[in-house]
Amino acid sequence: QVQLMESGGGLVQPGGSLTLSCVVSGSTFGVYSMAWYRQAPGGQRERVASISRSGITNYEDSVNGRFTISGDIAKKTIFLQMNSLKPEDTAVYFCLANEAVHGEDVEYWGQGTQVTVSS
Length: 119
Fold this sequence. Notes:
Elements: E1 3-7, E2 10-12, E3 18-25, E4 31-39, E5 46-52, E6 57-59, E7 67-72, E8 77-82, E9 91-101, E10 104-109, E11 113-117
Parallel strand pairs: 2-11
Antiparallel strand pairs: 1-3, 3-8, 4-5, 4-9, 5-6, 7-8, 9-10, 9-11
């Protein structure tokens, strides 16, 4: 069973930086992709960035150039470096892992970590 634990959220001023971490417990043998999602109050959960097992990354347009996803799925930790933060980045940030299990895609979610950007 894969379990995810996010950390690193907090309160930061506009223009500031934060780094989120997601640590995986359990085997990542079948995990082929991980991602960061966020959900603002009253909003839908949206994908922010993703990283494949081979290290290929993708970003949502509004964070491209400001956020960097990194880490190593095999080493069970990924990060989200967030720079030039804006008030609209305020949200709960979730970590997701996708695992292939007997041809089926299984999703695992963390509990989330709050990021608040405010002066």
